[in-house]
From TrEMBL:
InterPro entries linked: Haem_peroxidase, Haem_peroxidase_sf, Peroxidase_pln, Secretory_peroxidase
Domain Plant heme peroxidase family profile: 40-338
Binding site for Ca(2+) 1: D84, V87, G89, D91, S93, E102
Residues reported in the UniProt entry to bind substrate: P174
Cofactor remark: Binds 2 calcium ions per subunit. Binds 1 heme b (iron(II)-protoporphyrin IX) group per subunit.
Protein name: Peroxidase
Keyword terms of this UniProt record: Calcium, Disulfide bond, Glycoprotein, Heme, Hydrogen peroxide, Iron, Metal-binding, Oxidoreductase, Peroxidase, Secreted, Signal
Enzyme's top EC category: oxidoreductase
Binding-site residues, heme b: H204
Cofactors, names only: Ca(2+); heme b
Subcellular location field: Secreted
Pfam family, one: peroxidase
Positions annotated to bind Ca(2+) 2: T205
Length: 345
């Protein structure tokens, strides 16, 4: 109970702000609780155990060095965390290499950010040998990267252990062309809710989508041979120029040019949803659901509400199906389980 109390007190300002928002907007199902996990993580876990007291400054320093040179790392790490937590829980299984692993699946061919995680792990292994899990490193690195991009520096609760297997067959990413109902159902199947669904999609502000992920909206929506009627005409013309019909060039397009190219954390994603300027159908669909539409409107009007919501929802995602206690292991190298690590005798 002490662990739960500590977590609750640290996030209380965020929680209270969303109780107010939820009452004002009228969506009673919005998230106002902590990560849905029966194995609680702990603030300052390594400091309390005296195994790596300065783990957070160590991670923060490495992320800042990388971010100063390459701001795309924010979007890359966010996508990497999503790919890890939403598939088999936050156990760093996506970092494991080898045949038939999540990392080597064609569905994850565009994932990136591995080099920074490996660099951080090497630094920590020098300073705190076999103490800090790759799963915790990934969650900390994401927090710091999004903070440098403009998000709040939310508390990360620690104590995750690393998984010892990874299977490509686990990957169950939903289609970018799904409806809001299908998208919400997917999030709910992972033990997240409507607020997490709408909030975490807002991370698209900083990223890119390839033409193939929204091509059907431009030329053959639902097999009609016509574009998606919900897309703004001026946006359709521009996107068709960037993604020509029958072209084999699967170019990347920024979700929001104004902020995406600078990888700046903003609420522009939501104003584009309201203006019918979204790239992905699932993003545009947010405006059509009752609760999802109210959240989109709330976030579009207030960057601060989105910042607070993001801190809460990414913390909830980071607590999914974590391994703690004697489950899993602390990998010496994030790419290999200790059993398969060629550098361990």
């Amino acid at each position: 109970m002490e662990k739960y109390s500590e977590i609750f007190l640290l996030l209380l300002p965020i929680l209270m702000s969303f109780v107010v928002v939820s009452l004002n907007a009228g969506y009673a199902n919005a998230a106002v609780f902590l990560p849905p996990e029966d194995k609680p993580l702990v603030r300052h876990y390594y400091k309390k155990l005296n195994t790596c007291a300065n783990v957070e400054p160590f991670v923060q320093h490495q992320v800042k060095l990388y971010w100063d040179k390459d701001k795309t790392i924010t979007a890359k790490l966010l996508k990497l965390l999503y790919a890890d937590c939403m598939v088999n829980g936050c156990d760093a299984s996506v970092l494991l290499t080898g045949p038939n692993t999540e990392r080597n699946s064609s569905k994850n061919a565009r994932l990136d950010g591995y080099l920074l995680i490996d660099k951080i792990k090497k630094v920590l292994e020098i300073r705190c040998p076999r103490a800090v899990s790759c799963a915790d490193i990934l969650n900390l690195a994401v927090r710091d990267a999004v903070h440098y991009a403009g998000a709040p520096s939310y508390p990360v609760f620690l104590g995750r252990r690393d998984g010892v297997e990874s299977k490509a067959e686990w990957i169950d990413y939903p289609s970018p062309s799904m409806s809001w109902e299908e998208g919400l159902a997917y999030f709910e199947s992972k033990n997240l809710d409507v607020q997490d669904f709408v909030t975490l999609l807002g991370a698209h502000t900083m990223g890119q989508a390839h033409c193939s992920s929204f091509y059907n909206r431009l030329y053959d929506f639902k097999g009609t041979g016509k574009p998606d009627p919900s897309m703004k005409r001026s946006v359709l013309v521009k996107l068709r120029d960037q993604c020509p019909k029958n072209s084999k060039n699967d170019s990347p397009v920024y979700f929001t040019e104004e902020y995406g190219s600078n990888y700046t954390f903003s609420n522009k994603f939501y104003t584009k949803v309201l203006a019918h300027e979204s790239l992905l159908r699932v993003d545009q669909q947010l405006s059509y659901g009752g609760d999802t539409g109210k959240l989109v409107d709330e976030y579009a009007k207030s960057l601060e509400q989105f910042r607070r919501g993001f801190a809460l929802s990414i913390s909830r995602m980071g607590g999914l199906k974590v391994l703690t206690g004697k489950n899993g292991e602390i990998r010496q190298d994030c790419k290999f389980t200790n059993k398969n690590n060629p550098n361990i005798n």
